[in-house]
């Protein structure tokens, strides 16, 4: 136990963000392809061997898209449609050692009245994510997703590939995905601090937000907390990563809103001492997004499982809760799962908000910790 205490005392929170804003070239496709012949009667222009997209290489059937009545885009500008066998790629250089790269991508349906929407696949050497428009969560036709890309050493070349994936044998009635607004964010590996036994308990480390979007960023199921766009948390079902600029966020710049049934987030820690008591503090509430309802959130901390009710009027509210539990042997799971969700009057899927999750040794333990610091200090003074 002393060993663990010492580790806790010595290690200080060191979590920094590096700017990756300029790593990708032409991430919003606003630099138009070369030799483009615009066609006033259609928002799509098919690219051929005479075209190049600045910053990108393309293959297969790829069209340059201009926002219109039928194709809505977050910046009202331009995007790329990846039709049959369509694929774009760009190689960027990792700009630091041990940085984690998280991608935010925006996906829009490339047509109307289709029998199916083809999927979009985003991949890099360490990751592979499939995104679809099968389920619609927000009020816009497009949706933004967070995607864990990977972690590489300084100057390592990373080939980011985005391609379409057909879901039907009849490709003629398929709507092909439109991709826009790729935001790449890098962040340092998180290190344990002494104010919280959980890493990223405030959810500050996740994908970048589109600066003008009121839609948040969707996070799809991620079984591994390491390979997750929400650092250190695995994602069950679909949750929404929300920003304080457009939502009510109790603490810091970001929080989680659960937007699908039986969905949530989960982490685990091996830092606890078997038999010792710990407090798990957390905030539940509503994100001020007109979401009404009574939600039941299942909170698990080790072997303790308890339900909490969130009464939401959709006007922005939060209540702090705390549970005390005794750590068992091995890894201690911590999770928040919502049994139910609802939809706003606009049809936007919504649910309970979670923020500011803090795990600490319970009071008695803390006293003991202070005492040990005192003893160490006295010993140090005596030696000097
Ligand atoms: C413009 O688009 C329309 C409709 O897709 C097509 O019929 C026409 O041939 C196109 N014009 C040119 C110059 O490509
Ligand atoms: C490329 O441009 C040349 C000259 O304008 C034209 O002859 C050729 O057909 C174009 N190639 C394609 C694939 O459209
Ligand atoms: C955000 O909105 C402002 C004002 O409407 C606009 O000037 C700006 O270009 C937008 N930014 C992006 C990234 O779309
Ligand atoms: C795209 O990938 C190909 C290999 O598949 C590579 O030759 C090319 O350089 C890549 N393009 C960019 C812009 O990274
Ligand atoms: C889709 O269907 C609607 C209603 O049936 C129709 O008004 C619209 O023109 C169709 N759009 C396309 C692109 O076919
Ligand atoms: C798709 O359309 C093309 C050309 O319009 C046609 O040749 C092909 O047979 C169609 N495929 C199917 C599966 O309907
Ligand atoms: C779901 O939200 C609607 C308003 O959008 C509200 O009238 C309804 O009571 C809510 N349902 C539940 C079960 O809370
Ligand atoms: C929590 O609520 C769910 C759904 O209402 C119920 O099925 C479950 O038994 C409850 N669990 C506890 C520990 O009370």
UniProtKB/TrEMBL annotation:
The keyword Secreted applies. GO terms for cellular component: extracellular region. Residues 1-20 form the signal peptide. It comes from the Eukaryota. Residues 23-185, 196-359 form the DUF642 domain. It holds the Pfam family DUF642. Keywords: Glycoprotein, Secreted, Signal. Its main location: other. It is found in: Cell envelope; Secreted. InterPro entries: DGR2-like_dom (IPR006946), Pectin_Meth_Modulator (IPR052437). This is DUF642 domain-containing protein. It comes from Citrus clementina.
